[in-house]
Amino acid sequence: MRLPLAVLVSFSVVFGSCSPAPGPEQNRLTFFEHLGHTGFKFSWRNLTCPTCKALFVILDIALLTDTNEEHVARTAGEVCIRLHLAEERVCRSITELFRDDFIRALQRSLLLPREACALLVGPSCGKYDIYAPWNVTLPGIPKPPVTPPSLPKPGSPQSRILFLTDVHWDQEYTAGTTADCKEPLCCRKDSGFPSWRRREAGYWGTYGKCDLPLRTVENLLENVAAAGAWDWVYWTGDIPAHNIWSQTRTQQLSELTVISRLIHKHLGPKVKVYPAVGNHESTPVNSFPPPFIHGNRSSSWLYNTMAEEWSPWLSEQAVKTLRYGGFYTMEIQPGLRVVSLNMNFCAAENFWLLVNSTDPADQLQWLVHVLQESELKGEKVHIIGHIPPGLCLSSWSWNYYHIVNRYESTVTGQFFGHTHMDEFEMFFDEADKTRPFGVAFIAPSITTYVDLNPGYRVYYVDGNYKGSSRLVLDHETYILNLTEANHSPGSGKPVQDPKWELLYRAREAYALPSLFPADLDTLIQTFVKDDRFFQKFWYFKHKGHVSEPCKDACKTTEICLLRMNFSLFSHPLQCSNCVVLW
After folding, report:
1. Which enzyme class (predicted)?
2. pTM value?
């Protein structure tokens, strides 16, 4: 096997880990060096410089012909099988699925063997950073004075916002099949049926490596429709299941269409929905070429269908930028605007960023323009997206942080998903590093993947009146308790029409006066001092289904992640990015 490197790199995009990087040099390897999860034994650091360079020279020569591209793919499939990275069927399917797009991205990246090896093997083999620092340009207009937020007067209007994320509908979900199979996704028609001491898939969903049947998604939409009225909806993507080795464009578009129309059907034509693009919408997963990639390799097949399905909710101008790069902005109400970002342009897993990772699609520069216009008009802005900014590439995260710090009086809400967990990220001022100025709220997933109850979020935001801050005042999390839904008391059979129950209200659960940045920063300090509050957070983070408490190093890591102060790091960020299968 002479040519495994190309797809070993691509495997690192698909099967990742969530472990911290020891230092700034290793932080540069976040795209490539997450091979510890799911049994990876390969390490780029085990290669010598001459060996690495020789292999990449062979790879460069091999990729000059289509015949050798086939050989690379076959060889990579064998590597996957021999290293036991996945079952044989998954290995062969995923190498075939990723082959064309990944190789085209690698060919266009213009990496020389010495540069690739400096990047992969480390500083002992040279110095090269494909994700080198870059800056967006901010206008020369001074930042307005910052006024600390205050609670609205009692009785002031509030907006009630439904937040949906990470549906992950599995068309092949089958009750009664094996819930703990060897493949990355179980509870499916081809998972087989459980033998003795193995768990089986429940009717409404299953704790484990399983996504959801359509009936659970529809039950959710029926429940939230009955729980209305909603002022509007934020929906931050990830529609397809985690069967990333066997997806097709036709399947992805079909699922996008079905879920979009179900949301429209159940919530009605009067409720506006503002969607964002998830990383699972494309196939191969995480594959989002920048707009300068044209033809069949571009994302137009996906963005055009999104534009068609979402046009009842979006303006003509929003549809235009959606077709261009998967992002848009719209006025929600007078004085409030939403910005929907395509966070795939910040993701280390998006191998197209090998070609150019400097502000792909000029999205952040566009964001600056939108925020400056809103500042001049006195608008407040909510930013929505799929991947939280703390999980992005270093330079992208730093620039995003710099932007929202500059426009902190304009950006009054940040809403994300992706992790499937219930958590948040704090933002601290670049000048006064002890002053919290913003919060990115990360909402729990609808899917159960992995080992979770299905859930959704409701935000209460300062409402539509003159002088409204448009800040988040409170939020609620609702879950479907699968233990109860799958086993009705008495009969033991699935409940026919299960109800989604309130898990907690944030201010009530944590005894907070508000959810403003200063109060959430104080809450984190309380987590350090009072373990009861932290364990409550841990329980809520996992949507009421926790196997064991989080203590010692686990607790320290969690609190560190909540307070990840990007402004404390040099440029680029010297912090760990977290690559996950989500």
Report:
1. hydrolase
2. 0.85
